[in-house]
Amino acid sequence: MTKITLVAGLATALALAAVGHGVACADGGPPLEGPLKDNFILLDEPAPAPAQTVTDADGRPVGVADFHGRVLLINFWATWCAPCVREMPSLDRLQGKLGDVGLTVMAVSEDRKGAEKVMPFYRELGLRHLDVFLDPKGSFARAMKLRGLPSTILVDTQGRVIGRLEGPFEWDGPEAERLIRHYLPDLPLPDNNGKQSALRQDHG
Question: Within 13 Å and on the Cβ side, how many CA atoms surround 65?
Fold first, then answer.
């Protein structure tokens, strides 16, 4: 797969193109505050996520359907993408904070060499909460209509795409947490009959 081109300023351009999309919570919609208000593109109607799968660190196929009942924050990144690398620790902290109450951060690597490249990177950065997900041929990225790295897509508990943000972001900040909590279940969930536990890797 050809490396996805980094798109400078793409998030702002997409936000301007999406005038009319909901950005307030006065009517019960999701809260989009601070930088999210200008950069998170909220769909007018949630759309089913594609059925394509990625693989985990052991080569097992994993798809959105495997996380039914959990909110997914799908982040597309690569080790060669400097903005991606900068935001990875914030994604790791977010998973550590909200993973027990129904959130899965699905950090999907677009590196061609897959786990061979990604696992040492996780250890080097000290990422302890994120599982490894691999998309070396870019099929999942294409199905999600990706236009640049990093890109992050929010999926609700029913497997529907809510919206996306293209470009780097501090995902453990209060604005992002309030947005994600809007879609989280009221009570902590079991971990998909052991599915999530089976996917958990020790990156320490």
Answer: 5
